[in-house]
Amino acid sequence: MKTKDKHRISNHCKQLRLSAIADQVEQLADTASAEGISYLEFASRLLETEITRRNLNEMARKEKAARLPAMHELRAYDCTQTEGMPPAKLQQLKELTWLEQNFNLVIMGPNGVGKSFLAAGLCHYALQSGYRAYFRTMEQIMTTLKTRDISRQAMADYKKLSKAHLIVIDDIMMIAIARQEANAFFHFVNALHEKTSFIITTNKSPKEWAETIGDEVITTALLDRLLYRCEIIKLSGESYRMKNRKTIFGKTA
């Protein structure tokens, strides 16, 4: 293929917003010429290049909207460091059958045992499988609920969450919340619990939630929604962060 033909095709692709083909058409054409492939095979490779780029861009957009924490690759999850998550159980969770069946997960355990890491990793798997999934802390959820009527950004986030297949709520009941806020949170969960799965991470048992909310009636109603179709996962072990604590000083004699 002549250079002027490559440039012409590249310009056409830019006008059609086929950016991946525009960027790689010369390389693909040279490879096709060297291999002596058919025109149909060449056309197929061009389209596959564009589709791959678009899929990667779409996944990046979904991950940004999900607000996944930096640590979310379950390939790095070490089952030997935590009690309560054997490899077979982790594999079963990664298959997402529980999400297809609209089950919730409550991941309990002390600080540092990998609750958030596990929840974020499962959220990432859901995104890769085509589900609408989001990762939010309890504080972020409450901010969205409190400000959605006065903030365009909060309302946009609320609408996204309302259409989710999966919502991770990290560190639920970490801090006390006012009764009015607890009521708003209950209505949020109540509106979604039959069509959305939740992953809850917490270092408090459900029985302790009433102390944080300060209202036993709301707590009971909230637990009724979350625990009806739910798997409770209890993790234990030494804090990963404390076991791998960093220091600015080297080893001393």
Automatic annotation (TrEMBL):
<feature type="domain" description="AAA+ ATPase">
    <location>
        <begin position="101"/>
        <end position="236"/>
    </location>
</feature>
<protein>
    <submittedName>
        <fullName>ATP-binding protein</fullName>
    </submittedName>
</protein>
<dbReference type="InterPro" id="IPR002611">
    <property type="entry name" value="IstB_ATP-bd"/>
</dbReference>
<dbReference type="Pfam" id="PF01695">
    <property type="entry name" value="IstB_IS21"/>
</dbReference>
<dbReference type="GO" id="GO:0005524">
    <property type="term" value="F:ATP binding"/>
</dbReference>
<dbReference type="InterPro" id="IPR003593">
    <property type="entry name" value="AAA+_ATPase"/>
</dbReference>
<dbReference type="InterPro" id="IPR028350">
    <property type="entry name" value="DNAC/IstB-like"/>
</dbReference>
<keyword id="KW-0067">ATP-binding</keyword>
<comment type="similarity">
    <text>Belongs to the IS21/IS1162 putative ATP-binding protein family.</text>
</comment>
<dbReference type="InterPro" id="IPR027417">
    <property type="entry name" value="P-loop_NTPase"/>
</dbReference>
<dbReference type="InterPro" id="IPR047661">
    <property type="entry name" value="IstB"/>
</dbReference>
<keyword id="KW-0547">Nucleotide-binding</keyword>
